[in-house]
Structure formats: structure tokens, C-alpha cells
Amino acid sequence: MYDGSRVPVFRREGYVFMTDRSQYPNKKAADEKPGISRRGLFDTISAASLAATAAALTANRASAAPSPAGAIEPIPNFKFNIENQTGWQGEGGSAKEATVAEFPISQSIAGVSMRLKPGSIRELHWHALAAEWAYMLEGRCRATVVMPNGQSEISDFGPGDTWYFPRGHGHALQGMGPGEAHFILGFDNGHFSEYGTFDITDWIATAPKNIVARSLGIPESAVAQLPKKEIYIGPGKVPEMAIEPLRDAQMQPAQSSHKYRLDMQPPRIFPGGREYIVSSKEFPIQTTLTAARMDLQPGALQELHWHPHADEWHFYVRGRARVGLFGSHSRTRVDEFGPNDVGFIPQGFGHYVEQIGDEPTEIIILFNSGVYESISLSSWLGGNPVSLLETNLLIPRSLIDQLPKRETGIIAKKA
Ligand code: MN
Ligand code: MN
Questions:
Q1: Using CB atoms within 10 A of its CB, is residue 157 exposed (0-12), middle (13-18) or buried (19+)?
Q2: Last residue of some domain: 244, 260, 276?
Q3: Known catalytic residue: 132?
Q4: How far is the CA of 69 from the centre of ligand 1 (A)?
């Protein structure tokens, strides 16, 4: 098996694209070319890359960087409309997913748009493969979560609030009315499936009756009254507004809250907009994700930048934007996003977000790391001496003096 110690630069990107189902309907077949092992294949590419590098070193300085023929796939589609599908519909609400099945580039993050009618529940469950994050778009809901240390938390959420349930923590949601509760869920694993979660009714309905009876200390006749199949999302009655006490009055409250009010986070203000960023620094339990909200004024531009150690996932709440990616070896891809679109920017890829249209654009963003990192083109240029830029960019000092030296963040509409 490949040991990861000698990774040619293009390999990680290569992995991303090999999982694009449109390119490789059968991933296994793509990975196992006849007569050549994975290790052998990469050694071959490595050797080709070294030869190309050597050739480039002796060539004119203006020539392009080495590009191992055949190893580079174009940047795949990075946009998906999460609402434009039937998804799961029931009496109590609905769920629509954007996992790798619907959106193949999104390997590290899955999204779900979920709605709960007043009183309806997303029943008691846990996720074996992923931590769950959510941003409330509309309405109100109540969540309970039980932690492996025996602590428990119950709290209410309204628009602009977020929650984070670490992988495996048991939880349930309930719509609190008056209208529908609508929230966008994010999971730190693109292979997660909201339909494949571990629901309490599914477990109880499928475990042997005598085991359930003994485990719960009730007669088998009582077990027969429990649900006979999985509920997932089911109708219910809106509970009292005052939060009820937990059944176990001695339960310790959670010492690390699962709730963070993203919209109450003081934003970073730029001439063209603002950005609310919540990492594990602000929200300690949110160890595997950083959440953000970006508001762009009409005509604004989020400058060219990249994130060294995280993929970036977008959900468009309102307004429109054009996003451009740079994926090395002259590869670029541009797409336009609007309400209910999900976007995905692979780790390390250069990118920009250009606001389009007359109404401001609001994007909810996730990074698959609890630590936020970003490098902008401006701060990069500021962190270099003039002479190096003269030599690298082939421009006079007078023009270099006009370039920014610090992060410009979100640039305002052209005057
Ligand atoms: Mn869940
Ligand atoms: Mn970014």
C-alpha cells in the first residue's frame, strides 16, 4: 500500500478527481489499472515528473512548470442545488441531502436541508461516521444531546444559531413552531448519509423482544407497544415553551455547550462586506469544523486566497456569486451560485468569490478543520521583498509599489 511519504504535488488533487463518478463510474477499476499496481503507477508518475522537472530546469525560465502528461484531470463540477430534488418527505417534515452520492467532489463534507413542522421530531439518534453541525435558517427548534461522559444538554435554537454534536453523541430535535423550522445541516464526512443514521426506533424494532424487555426492565407485552419500525421524522405536539427538566434530576449539565449563536459573533468588517468566523477557539466543542457566514454587498469581491489545510463548503442563503477556482497546472473552473446551491472548494485550491446581481449575497460556509487558516494574495505579496517581486513578476518597482501589502478581504464595488 502507498505509504504517503513521497507524494508528488499533484497526487492529492488526483485523488479528489478519481472519486468523481462522472469520470470514473467504477472507482475500483480506475484505481486498479491492469498490469500495474497502485504503487507501481505512482512510481512511474514520480519518475516522469522528475524527468520533466529536470528538462524544465534546463529550459527557458519563461517556460511552463512541468506537467506530467495524463496525470491531471480537469477540475470537476463543484456546484449542486440541494433543494432541486425530492429527497425524503413525510408527515412531520422533510430532508434533502448533498452527500458524495449527489455531489461527488464533496468528499469531506455532506449537507442536508431539513424541515420540521411544529411539534414534529427528528427522533433520538446518533451518527456513527460524522459530527453534525447546523445553522438555523427559519423558525425555532429544541435539541437534546447526551454525551459519553454522562452529561446532557437541552437548548432552543432560532435563526442564526448553530449547533455541533460530536460524532456519536445521541441527540434529537423538535420543531417548536409557530412555523416550520428549516435548518441546513453539515457533516464532517461526505460519505455520511442522513438516511443511514442510527435511530432509536429502528434499533428497538429490530432487536430481539426478550433482549429489549430485559434491557429496559419491562415485560415483553410492553415491548409490543413500542414502534415496530423506524420513525426518522415524525409528527408531534409542540411542548411547553419553558424547558422541561430531564427525567434524571441528578444528571450533570453539559460542561461544554453544543450551541453557538453564529450571527451574534462579532464580524470582521471589510469595505465590501463582512465575515463571521467561528472556529473551535470560539466554540470549543466544534473541534472538526470551522463555520462562517459571509455577507457580500452588491459588486463586492472576496480577494484571491487559499486555505492551507481545509476544504471549503458553501451554502447560498440569498443573492448570487461567481466563484473561480485555480487548481494548479493552469486548471481553472468558474461557476455561478444562487439560493440553495451548495459549493465545494478543495483544500489548497486558489479561489475568489465575486458578488453578482443587485441584492446582497449571504453564504453559510464550513471548513473541515476546527482551526481556521487562510492566506491571501495581498498578504503574500506584502510578505516579500520588492526585488524578488521584480524578478518574479517582471514588473518595475513603481508598479509593485501600487500592489497591496496586507489582506484586503472583501473589496468594495468598483467606484
Ligand atoms: Mn443528527
Ligand atoms: Mn475561501
A1: buried
A2: 260
A3: yes
A4: 44
